[in-house]
Amino acid sequence: MATKCANCKRDNPEGTVICIYCGEPVDPTLLQRQANTREFGEEDAGENQPRWGSARFDEQVRLILRVVEQGQIIEAQVNKNEGIILGRFDPETGMAPDVDLTAFNAAELGVSRRHARLDIQQDSLRITDLGSANSTFLNGLRLVHHQPRILRDGDEIRLGHLKLQINFIESAD
Questions:
Q1: What are the tens digits of pLDDT across the range 117-172?
Q2: pTM for the full model?
Q3: Which of 20, 75, 70, 57 is nearest to 151 (CA)?
Q4: What residue spans of 27-170 are helical by DSSP H?
Q5: Contact call for residues 72 and 104 (beta carbons, < 8 A)
Q6: Torsions phi, psi of 77, nearest 5?
Q7: Are strands 156-159 and 136-138 parallel, antiparallel or unpaired?
Q8: d(Cα 18, Cα 69) in Å, to the nearest integer?
Q9: pLDDT by residue (tens digit) across 22-64?
């Protein structure tokens, strides 16, 4: 039996708490419970400085992408104002992405021609699924199309069924 959302009036699968269409609580009593939550002041927030760890880059980052199943290595560089595209060669147009995964059975593993983009945004390396047919996954979680997510050293990304481990190379400055 479907549960109708109080906000958008669409049917959601039974047991749904948050509407899959509008993101609002399906049960209006949840709104009342939410309103009773104590809010913290600035003094209660603790450290307000982000912890970037190995995910902060000013101008560029050099990467090693290891194809997990085959153990092969691809080196790439991402510059601040120029993202790179991960995907496979398009025989119809002759276009190849910046990182061409064709040699790693990309077509058979469901990699789109323009599958995902890596770029530096707000001083961190991010991955964005470009509306691929078989999705992009970060550490096992499916990414929302066109929504950037921060990458960290050692993360696993999966394009369709092609798994890549990403590592950052220290600059020799």
A1: 999 988 889 999 999 999 999 999 999 999 999 999 999 999 999 999 999 886 55
A2: 0.68
A3: 57
A4: 29-35
A5: yes
A6: -130, 135
A7: antiparallel
A8: 37
A9: 888 887 665 555 445 556 565 555 554 444 456 667 788 899 9
